[in-house]
From TrEMBL:
Organism phylogeny: Bacteria, Pseudomonadati, Pseudomonadota, Gammaproteobacteria, Thiotrichales
Descriptive protein name: Probable S-methyl-5'-thioinosine phosphorylase
Known function: Catalyzes the reversible phosphorylation of S-methyl-5'-thioinosine (MTI) to hypoxanthine and 5-methylthioribose-1-phosphate. Involved in the breakdown of S-methyl-5'-thioadenosine (MTA), a major by-product of polyamine biosynthesis. Catabolism of (MTA) occurs via deamination to MTI and phosphorolysis to hypoxanthine.
Note: Although this enzyme belongs to the family of MTA phosphorylases based on sequence homology, it has been shown that conserved amino acid substitutions in the substrate binding pocket convert the substrate specificity of this enzyme from 6-aminopurines to 6-oxopurines.
GO terms for cellular component: cytosol
One record GO biological process: purine ribonucleoside salvage
Subunit and interaction comment: Homotrimer.
Pathway this chain belongs to: Purine metabolism; purine nucleoside salvage
Amino acid sequence: MTQLAIIGGTGLTALEGLEITHKQVLPTPYGEASSPIIHGVYAGKKIIFLPRHGARHNIPPHKINYRANIWTLKELGVEAVIAVAAVGGIHPDMQATDLVIPHQLIDYTYGREHTFFADDLAHVTHIDFTEPYCEQLRQQLLIASNTLTTKVHHQGVYGATQGPRLESTAEINRMERDGCDIVGMTGMPEAALARELNLCYACCSVIVNPAAGRGLKEITMADIEANLSLGIVNVRALLTAFLNQ
Ligand code: HPA
């Protein structure tokens, strides 16, 4: 069976229902991963789990060592990665607690270590990123989602912002004009690094707030947390359905 890793985002620092078998720390040429790698059994299947923001949820999006995380997963023989990410909804149909399996992305991040192909190169390498997500894994997630009552959007354009602050209304307006449907802070460089190492990578986004200027009021952490605790139930249901396929 394909070795699967789940990268947990905000609200998924611990994967409830995961029976942990052991934890492992691997040295990487890029420093330390966000946390020890967690090996365990979820929905009856062996998986690897990595909380992106650290086991104590204290690593902000722009400080995450994306290279160490992806490198570690590759070293452990991972072939497929489901990346869970909390996002804001830009498209009017994309409402809090809905899930989105994005098919495209736009990268607005800066200053992050974003490639493995930087130093000591035998030759310059340009990876293809026409389709930034693994379509096979995306389709498997969509098939699994058919068994759920949760609203799961089958596609969407993920705009990756630098954070840790949220966006201004004008920034969201620009992102909407660019074609973004959802906005989050961790989608890149994670997706590109996974592609550089030939990992099949798809994202399960959970909407936790209307993006800036799209709701009736300011975005508060309390609102985000309330939506997250409902939305994460949907994420767990999708992961379980996916693993039971
Ligand atoms: N913007 C960026 N990242 C986010 C948001 C948002 O509104 N909500 C959750 N992650």
